[in-house]
Amino acid sequence: MSAGAKAVEAFWSALEHRRRREGMSDDELIALARKRDETAVSALIRRHNQRLFRIARGVVHDDHEAEDIVQETYVRAFTALETFRGGAAFSTWLTRIALNEANGRLRRKRPTVELSEVDESSHADGAEVIMFPLSSIAPSPETEAGREQVRRLLEDALDRLPEPFRLVFILRDIEGLGTEATATLLSIKPETVKTRLFRARRLLRAEMRKALLPRFSDVFPFAGKRCAMMAERVIERLRAASF
């Protein structure tokens, strides 16, 4: 077999190996990662990149620092994988590490400012949570062309929200987590999650009413080349740490 043929065969073999890893559950991949299987580590990274980046970005307001936080989160997680006992979902464990890393950096930059006042009264008397308008109509070419601008508008609006509202909004409306799961991640009461989500939606609605499309899945994209490069950088650091 020629060198070229061997290279092609190796490529397709690696691709099939990666596809098998992508179809595994987190638990299956974690078991392999504990045996230093780099393809399992890479699969887990690609699977959880989006949420971790959004959470980090929601705290620090900076794409580059958020990416650095995500990388540090993975290094910490995979070098201490034996401490993960499975009491919570792997995604929850990773999210907590990312939140701790992001908040730690924020505290080092400035004093922590607590949310001292929440407008509870606006949620009383049976007030309904104001939802963003939904549409079942497929986006037109004009809509697709303007998506980037709208996404940036939404990101800017999110950046201006107080952090407690912003994180709840990202977890609930963008990531689609339930109230209980969000409360657990942020160590707050479910009632507080509901109140903060209501306030976040209300604050965003005024600015986004005419422009926002219900495409929250496009916010803070972290896929493609950026996602692949994250996996490569983490694995390089794990190798250097004798993972």
Poorly predicted parts: 112-136
Count of DSSP-assigned helices? 11
Integer count of domains? 2
The N- to C-terminal Cα distance equals 35 Å
The CATH topology of the largest domain: Rna Polymerase Sigma Factor, Chain: A
Mean pLDDT comes to 80
Query: Which structural category do the helix and sheet elements fall into?
Result: mainly alpha
- Helical percentage: 55-70%
Would you write up a description of this structure?
By secondary structure, this protein is mostly helical. The protein folds into two domains: 14-111 and 223-240, RNA polymerase sigma factor, region 2, helix turn helix motif (Rna Polymerase Sigma Factor, Chain: A); 133-213, Arc Repressor Mutant, subunit A. Helix content is 67%, strand content 0%. The chain contains eleven helices and no strands. It has helices at 3-22, 26-33, 38-60, 63-79, 90-109, 141-145, 147-159, 163-174, 179-186, 190-208, 224-240. Helix 4 (63-79) packs across helix 5 (90-109). The chain starts with a helix and ends with a helix.
